[in-house]
Each structure stands twice: as C-alpha cells, then as structure tokens.
Amino acid sequence: MDAPEGLPVLRIGELSRRLGGSDPVLRAWESRYGLLQPLRSAGGFRLYSEADESRVRRMQAHLAHGLSAAEAAQAVLAEDAGARADLGRATGPHRAPRAASELSGDLRQALDAFDEPAAQAVLDRLMSDLSLTTVLRDVVVPYLTELGERWERGTASVAQEHFASNVIRGRLAGLARGWGNGQGPRAVLACPPGELHDLALMVFGIVLNRNGWRIDYLGMSTPVEELTRTVDARRPDLVVLAATLPEILEPFATQLTALAQRAPLALAGAGATPQIAAAVGARLLAGAALPARAQTETGVAYAHKLEKAEAKLDFTRPAIALERQVRAFDPWPVAEAEIAGEPLRIWAAQAIELDHRATPGSLVAVSRDGIDLACGEGRNAVWLAEQGWRVTGVDFSPVALAKAAELAPARAISAAQIRPATTAASVEGE
Fold first, then answer.
1. CATH second-level architecture of 12-91?
2. Dihedral over Cα of 343, 393, 26, 173: its sign
3. What angle do CA 401, 348, 212 make, to 5 degrees?
C-alpha cells in the first residue's frame, strides 16, 4: 500500500516512543481496527510511516475527547477516506489492491529473470495487500511446488531453482526471527537425512508460530540420532518431520517408531504416506493424502453460545490458560477482571516467568505497558494490558503499589512516575 506522507521507515518501538504509547496497544489498534498500515522490510519487519503516526495522534485526540477506541478508530479512518476521495477527484483513481494470482505471476517472472529487487518488491506488495497466512498459503507454497515441477520437467534450470529458493529463504528467515520466544507449546521441526528441501517446513513453522507455538527448527537432513537427543533435551509438545519422497522416510522406520514413543510425532510433505505414519505411530499432516469422509453424529456435542460470565479471569489458573482465555474472548465478550479494586477489560495478555512470592491474583509489578499478576502453578505470572488506554500506577491503590514495589522492586514504577495516556472516559473501551 502507498505511504503518501513519507516512506515507511519507523519500527514499532520508535513509533511507540514518539507517541508515548506502548507496542501492544499499537499492535492491537493495527490488527483490530486497521489503524496502522505498515509495509514489510526485506527482513520481514513492519515499517511504519508518518501517515501511521498521524493516524495514531488523531486517535489519541479522539480518545481524549471521550470517544471509545472503536469510535475513535472509525473517525480517523473516515477522515482518511474523505481525504483520499478529495485527492482522487484531483489526481485520478487511487491504486487498487491486485489479486494474489496476478502478483504470483509477477513473482515468477522476476525470479525466473534473476531480478532480486523486483522479486522483493512483489513480496512487499503481497505482504501489504494480503495477510501473511494468505501470502504463504496461496502464493509462496504453490510457487515452490510449481517450481519443483518445472525443474523435474526440465523447463526450469538448476540456477533458476537455486536463485528463487534462496530469495524466498531469505524472506522466510526474516519472518522466522524470534519464533522460539514466548510461553506457548513447543514444536521441533526437522527433515530426515537426505532431505534437502525444507522451505515448505519453514512456512509451516512460521504459521504455527503465528498461532502461539514456539519453534525449534533443525532444518534439512537432520540425523535421527540428533533429533532424538534434541527431543529428550527440549521435551516438545510436537515433533514434525517433513520429506518429499517416501523413500527418504522408509529406512528410518524403526528409529521413528522409538521417537514417536518419546514425543507426539507428525509426518508431513509428499513423502509422508498413511502407510508410513501408521507403521511408526505418527500423525499424518499431508492433507492431500487424507481421504474425505462424511462426519458421523457419534460423539457430536452442542457448543453453547458464549456468555459474558465465561470471560471473567480466574488467577488461580495457570498463566498460559489465562493468555489463551484472553485471546479466545476477543472481540466478544472481552476478558474481564477486577484488579486492585478496579474493573478492567483485558485485550492483551502474555504468560511470563517472574521470581515472586505472591498469591494468585496479587499485583506483582506495574509498568508503562501493563501490569503483572501472580497466577496458579508456582511462580507463573501473566502480563495484562487494556486496549485504548494505558494501565497506570494512578489507577491502583497505594497499598497495591507498595506491594508491587516490595515483591518486584526492579520492575515496579510509582504512581508519580506514570501519567495516563488518555482521560478516564477512554477506560470504557467499546
């Protein structure tokens, strides 16, 4: 998408510093309301423009005048739409998003011509016009499959296949940065010995990470003994082994059977067949190889309508369970909790590890971005933040702040150090 008020050069940390806000709130405004419209760098990082900064400042002004977060965002986007309409009448129509199929053709043409800058420009356009999952599923993976088929037919040279694979690998590597961080379930991804094609596995790992998983990526041609040692050391929730040919997996059936007894094992790729998966006791992820079956009524359960009472957070539960509960109840009815006597609607949460001695539900620390509360399961804690305003020290009682300072002196911030980002009216959210 265009950046009419300057090139997008700001990372989100710099943008939040300029605006006096927090990264989680800006990301929430971007994903929930489309307020920010970043482009991606060659390394996969979001870059924001002066236009994005202007929209956030206008939203903050609307919030200060009492609008809810949704109303403020709608007002800002309506202002921009009116400005674009005026510009269009003066200069002609605005650029419309192009279909993924059309951009796929542009990508193939650029890569076949060894034109790396053009290929990166097409990938930038894809990332700006479409969601990451759509780009990977509908463009990147089909292109890699088609490229392999052309190489087998002799209509694509080895040089073209290597060039295109390395350009795409570089972009995927940027998207994969930090995929081992977080508190979600862990997956170990690898290719068996002799398998040198791992780009589709990288795509799978990126999508899995975007759904809350941590990734330990071992990559191509990993010895099964090394994979087994990694599984013993890391204790993952899932191991995924990908291969393009059944002949690559078959020699390791005995070792894979033993591996499947150590951790949940899934086989993926064209080389993963139902026969091999059944023989080693693994789950099959090769979707095309699974036959379609009509769903029976046996075991069918009724899913009742969500109720607001289900969104109330219980801090005696594990932190990771609360993180998932907050995600599950966004956008409705929104997770709720009463913290230090204040009722809060929670839009963002992350399970964290803190060295604390507090009972579940106790305020452990207050920061400019949110609050940390003790949870069940020993020293688990959960970081929470509201959308549309900043949780600050002035919203909590002096006793709660003193307790936070006692339990986590390095992290606690006093009420005098923090100022609200908006007026009290914005606390109402939506």
1. Orthogonal Bundle (1.10)
2. negative
3. 130
3-state secondary structure 351-380: EEECCCCCCCCCEEEECCCCEEEECCCCCE
Q: What confidence tens digit (pLDDT) does each residue in 360-372 have?
A: 877 777 765 667 7
Within 8 A by CB and 6+ apart from 45, the residues are 11, 174
**Average pLDDT over all residues of the chain:** 76
Do residues 313 and 386 lie in contact, with contact meaning Cβ atoms separated by under 8 Å?
A: no
Task: Assign 21 to helix, strand or coil.
Answer: coil
Q: How far is CA 380 from the centre of its chain?
A: 22
Report residue 188's pLDDT band, with 50, 70 and 90 as the boundaries: very high
DSSP string, 376-417: SSTTEEEEEE-SSS---GGGS-HHHHHHHHHH-TTT---GGG
pTM attached to this predicted model = 0.48
- 176-286 maps to CATH 2.60.120.10: no
Q: Write the single-letter amino acid at 51.
A: A
Name the one residue in this structure whose structure tokens are 């040089």.
159
The token duo for 23 is: 């990264």
- The CATH 1.10.1660.10 domain(s) of the chain lie at 12-91
Cα(265)–Cα(272) distance, integer angstroms: 12
| Residue 39, φ and ψ in degrees, nearest 5 | -105, 165
> How far is 227 from 267, CA to CA, in rounded Å?
14
Range 15-27 average pLDDT: 79
* CB-count burial class (<10 Å; 0-12, 13-18, 19+) for 241: buried
| Per-residue confidence band for 223, with pLDDT thresholds at 50, 70 and 90 | very high
Q: Which of 29-33, 48-52, 57-61, 165-169 bottoms out in mean pLDDT, i.e. has the lowest? A: 29-33
Level-2 CATH architecture, domain 308-428: Roll (3.10)
- Domain 98-174 matching CATH 3.10.450.50: the answer reads no
What does the pLDDT read at residue 322?
85
Rounded to an integer, what distance in angstroms lies between the CA atom of residue 339 and that of residue 95? 47
- Tell me the sheet residues that pair with 273: none
Neighbours of 421 (CB within 10 A): 20
